[in-house]
Please model this.
Amino acid sequence: MGFIDNMRARLSPAKDKVADLARQHGDRIGDGLDKAAKTVDDRTKGKYSDRIQSGTDKAKGAVERMGKKDGEDGGRGRSGGSQQPPNSPRG
Model:
C-alpha cells in the first residue's frame, strides 16, 4: 500500500464524519459563512465585496457537495457546481 492509499484509508472516517455534519448542519454552516462574509465586508468597507461574495458562494457550494451522499449529484457528474445548461433561462 502506497503513501497516498495509506492516507486515504486513515482519512476516510474523517471524511464520512464531515459529510454527516454537512448534511445535518448545512443551513447553519451557510448562515455562519454569510455572517463571516458580512463582517469581513464591513471591516474592509466594501473594497473586496465581489471577492468576498465569490468566496462565500464557493464555500457554500463545497459544503453542499460534501453533504450529498454518493450518487446524489443530480446528474452533474464530478464537476458539480451550479452551472446552468447553455439554453436554460437565468433567473
About this structure: Residues 18-66 form one domain.
